[in-house]
Amino acid sequence: MAQQTAVEWLKQKYIERGETLPSGVFQEAKEMEKEKIKDAYSNGYKNALNSMAGKEIITDEQYYNETYNK
Fold first, then answer.
1. What is the 3-state secondary structure (H, E, C) of 3-39?
2. Are 57 and 47 in contact (CB under 8 A)?
């Protein structure tokens, strides 16, 4: 069974409540989320290669904080 993204979950909740958003908002959010997922995968791959090469790696928490300034 395919996993559900956060944007897909949110869309489902809007539909269940009979609420709507302006046309294209969910699709735009889904495309943005897709890019973030692809970036995270790519960064994870790079981090794994750095780890195997004995280079410094960052944790998921460090990545999040650095990427989103949290």
1. CCCHHHHHHHHHHHCCCCCCCCHHHHHHHHHHHHHHH
2. yes
Q: What is the pLDDT of residues 23-35, one digit of tens each?
A: 899 999 999 999 9
Task: Determine the angle formed by the axes of helices 25-52 and 6-16, rounding to 10 degrees.
Answer: 160
pTM higher than 0.90: no
The count of residues in the chain is 70
The owner of tokens 């990545």 is: 63
> pLDDT tens, 8-54?
999 999 999 999 888 899 999 999 999 999 998 998 888 888 888 88
The residues spanned by each domain of the chain are 6-68
Pair 7, 30: CB distance under 8 Å: yes
